[in-house]
Amino acid sequence: MNLFETIEKTEHEEIIFCHNKDAGLKAIIAIHNTILGPALGGLRMYPYATEEQALTDVLRLSRGMTYKAAVSGLNLGGGKSIIIGDPKKDKSEALFRAFGRFLDSLGGRYITAEDVGIDVNDMEYVYQETENVVGVHQMHGGSGDPSPFTAYGTLQSIRASLEKKFGNQDVGKYSYAIQGVGHVGLELVKLIHAEGGKMFITDVNKEVLDTCKQQYGCEIVGLDEIYAVDADVFCPCALGGTVND
Hints:
- By secondary structure, the protein is of the alpha/beta class.
- The protein folds into 2 domains: 3-140, 3-Layer(aba) Sandwich (Rossmann fold); 147-236, NAD(P)-binding Rossmann-like Domain (Rossmann fold, 3-Layer(aba) Sandwich), CATH 3.40.50.720.
- The protein has helices spanning 3-10, 51-71, 93-104, 120-127, 147-166, 183-195, 206-216, and strands at 14-20, 25-33, 39-40, 43-46, 77-84, 110-111, 175-179, 198-202, 219-220, 233-236.
- The protein starts with a helix and ends in a 9-residue tail after the last strand.
- The model has no long low-confidence stretch (mean pLDDT 95).
């Protein structure tokens, strides 16, 4: 990857590579646009196969956050950050506090929150080093886990899409292919179940799939089969990049 040629095309303002050997930190912060305000976007922890894959992901995600903030009418820009590592075994207080110090050095140009592989407890460690964090525990005045709010926003988007396509917002009348039932996907399953909608689901986590089947009546399909099920609405709630031009 030609780095400067790439960011010229994506129009990123700044990319910060963060490394702390003692804490085992390898992270990238991407600030795409701050015209409307400081960049906002979550922190993702994932065992990327290559550093180029990690960079591609953070550039794509941060650019998307710029548009999300703009269409929502927020005085915020777009950013994102990633930590290269396995969230099941590589987390530590030292890791997140080291990341927090890098974040704090940006002077408020970028504000982070939870994303894939990150929870409220992880954010608490980051918060010990910087105030440029949202989604911390309610005891600190934060909103806590943002997943239920993200899922609720997704449900409202579904309603608007149903109105546009079918002329009504009756969620229970339609079927849904939900790709990924992690933090956000699981909350969306609960909301659609409450509305009476039929759901097809897929995920790499068999345990959560079984839970969704038993508690919410979901039909489990394979990772590749989710694209071909006979559903009215496709809900990509996994890592992203599954919908292309």
